[in-house]
Amino acid sequence: MSDTSAIHQRHRQGFQELNAFWDQLDALETAIDALGDCALSFAQDPIERALEQIHAFEPSVSVIGQVKAGKSTLLNALIGQTDLLPSDVNPWTSVITGIHLNSRHRPIDTRALFRFFDAHEWDRLVATGGRLGEMAARAGFEAEADEVRAQVTEMRQSTQARLGDEFAALLGASHSYPDLDKSLIDRYICYGDPSELEDGATEGVYADLTKSADLYVDLPGLPRGLCLRDTPGVNDTFMMREQITLNAIAESRVCVVVLSAHQALSTMDVALLRIICSVEAREVLIFVNRIDELADPAGETVKIRTALEGTLRRLGLSDDIEILFGSGYWANCALGDVSRMMPASRAALAALHGATDDLDSLRAQAFDASGVSELHRAIARRIVDGPGQAFLNDTKKEIDALLDMTETVESVAHQRSGGANPAITAAALTQRLDTVRDESLETFDEQTDRLRADLHARLLRAQDTFVGSALEALEAHIAAFGEFNSWTHDPANLRMMMKTAFSSSCAKLRREGEAAFDNVLDGMQEIVERDLGVFRDAHSIDFPEQPQHKAPTVLARTLSLDLQGPWWRKFWRFGARGAAEKRYRAVILAETTPLVDDLLTDVFDPAVARTREIIEVFAREQAGYVRAIHECMDAPRETPAAQRLSA
Ligand SMILES: Nc1nc2c(ncn2[C@@H]2O[C@H](COP(=O)(O)OP(=O)(O)O)[C@@H](O)[C@H]2O)c(=O)[nH]1
Ligand SMILES: [Mg+2]
User: Fold this and answer.
1) Is the CB of 71 under 6 A from ligand 1?
2) Which residues neighbour ligand 2 (ion) by CB within 5 Å?
3) CB 366 within 8 A of CB 331
4) What is d(CA 10, CA 119) in angstroms, rounded to the nearest whole number?
5) Is 68's C-beta closer than 6 angstroms to any atom of ligand 1?
6) How far apart are CA 254 and CA 607, in angstroms?
7) 280-321: per-residue pLDDT in tens?
């Protein structure tokens, strides 16, 4: 066997930019650490918090795509561990697997953590087959839905029976392990053959009960603090695992959509691309995988690219979604035993790079053609330019502000002699500081309540407008073609209106956050000047750059209105026109009202809560600073030095 170390070395170079970013963050951490050693006591908490945030900083990348697109295989290739994640997993499993690379935030004694569905989630899955059942019942696909539901129910019941007494205890629970090995992963992620399970096999024993897996792997040379998320993949007309995919996207700023080269544009892929519409385009990458299965990779990839770009344009997606080509399989061959490459893949590689019998050349060819280095670089660039840079800027700004404040406190301490007591007592000062905080928060709460009400009204209006236009279109269609031709009304407009409403509310929320920062700062400034008689240049402190809300991926959820079914005709046939309209309206409302509710409670409310929390922390830290000024006025001159913590 030839030598793989050169390939592994090249493999690691792909993430170079990300490693360089971590070096920058390391330098910042060292500086902050040093600062902590000699900081005044008011600065200790903010410094601790900044360090804590650096430790926890873990940008994440979700890999999404259809079942069998090769997502798990590609993820293994990305981390250079050719068989960490099982491939060919039974499509019924719905585990999201997070691989945490070189994490500094790993729970104690844990390399693997598996979480199970809770009783509520499980019941819902069994009773209705999940959202699929709910939607299909409205959409007139009962027969198909019944079939899927029956399968889901049967599988779930056999799980319940198999696990017996253990079952109830597992619901909502989690299992953690201090070590990672393949058989462990297989037990929770891989779905084994049910008949073998009955014979006592353990592979897949918990698989259909597992909701998520977190694996902590330390791999020298790969980036520190990067989470790669593998998703089960969407795989049927009803997008069984759509919600899971949407959740994974919402949690990651960077998404890699994996398409299979030999069917790069199925309806499912178009549906996936629609999902992309709901996330920020610059953070989406398309990886056309399995090009080793094309007879003429060079020629066919050109055609696929043209077709894909056409579709992206038609969907109104920006041109800067990067499209990459490659093969996770080639990468894994290059990183493992290249001599065992399947003949067809080898022929495809020869078509691309020329035939070779030399294993080292073959290995190098396979790695070059795999596209993994390009994907590494594309991921790294997006993380660094996006969340990475924002995080670095926010942290630097925080520390700068802290240095400014420290300077002020120290200069006050120097100017005052022990006799110049401040006009205000510590208790009165605390009261004032609390008032500033409370008033700022109160204003924020009022404003955001109003924002929420406005958003709600706008969403309802969008819903109403959509019902109106759909009914108009339906009437026009019937006037022209009678009631028996197929007819659909694309809900794209509805999504667009809702998305616009949501984005503008988020922009306003951000401005409310900024306003609250200003209010806190102004209030504190006034206290410092009027009550403490200290004048300083109040540097404005910006609201953090990192966005506070998760992507509104619920907007991408498939609606029964997306399904090009015969459902509406049924209404028409069985009733008068007025009744049909009424029922149609009811269907649209039933389909879209949960969307409105989810946008408000699952996305907007948490965003508000998070913003509020940032303001509270800000107010607390500013108050600490003002109190520090007061203390050094109150006390003899040498206090600041005494207050410094020892190293
Ligand atoms: N020829 C070839 N097969 C692949 C490639 N990627 C994955 N496969 C195979 O396709 C099947 C499904 O792969 P898997 O990674 O489980 O797909 P997933 O469902 O998207 O996670 C497995 O048998 C893989 O070995 C590839 O790039 N080329
Ligand atoms: Mg998989």
Assistant:
1) yes
2) 71-72, 89
3) yes
4) 47
5) yes
6) 19
7) 545 889 999 999 999 999 999 999 999 888 888 887 776 678
**H/E segment holding residue 394:** helix 389-415
Pairing state between β 96-101 and 226-230: antiparallel
Question: Which secondary structure element, helix H or strand E, spans residue 13, and what is its range?
Answer: helix 5-13
In this structure, the residue with its CA closest to atom 14 of ligand 1 is: 70
List, for residues 189-248, the tens digit of each pLDDT value: 876 555 555 565 666 778 778 889 999 999 998 998 999 999 887 665 445 566 677 777
Give phi and psi for 11, each to the nearest 5.
-55, -45
Would the CB of 69 count as within 6 Å of ligand 1? yes
Q: How many C-alpha atoms does 392 have within 13 Å on its Cβ side? A: 16
Instruction: Give which of 171, 195, 249 is closest to 553, Cα–Cα.
Output: 249
> In angstroms, what is the span from residue 107 Cα to ligand 2's centroid?
25
Two structure tokens written together for 61: 């990348």
* Measured distance CA(445)–CA(454) in Å, rounded: 14
Q: Report CA(282)–ligand 2 centroid distance (Å).
A: 25
As separate numbers, helices (DSSP H) first and strands (DSSP E) second, the chain gives 24, 9
Query: Could you tell me which residues come within 8 angstroms of residue 325 by beta carbon, excluding any fewer than 6 positions away?
Result: 261, 287, 288, 291, 297, 301, 304, 305, 371
Residue closest via CA to ligand 1's atom 7 equals: 70
Helix (H, G, I), strand (E, B) or coil at 453: helix
- Cα(532)–Cα(518) distance, integer angstroms: 20
Burial code of 359-388, b = ≥16 C-beta within 10 A, e = fewer?
eeebbbbbbbbbbbbbbbbbbbbbbbebbb
Instruction: Please tell me if the CB atom of residue 87 comes closer than 6 angstroms to any atom of ligand 1.
Output: yes
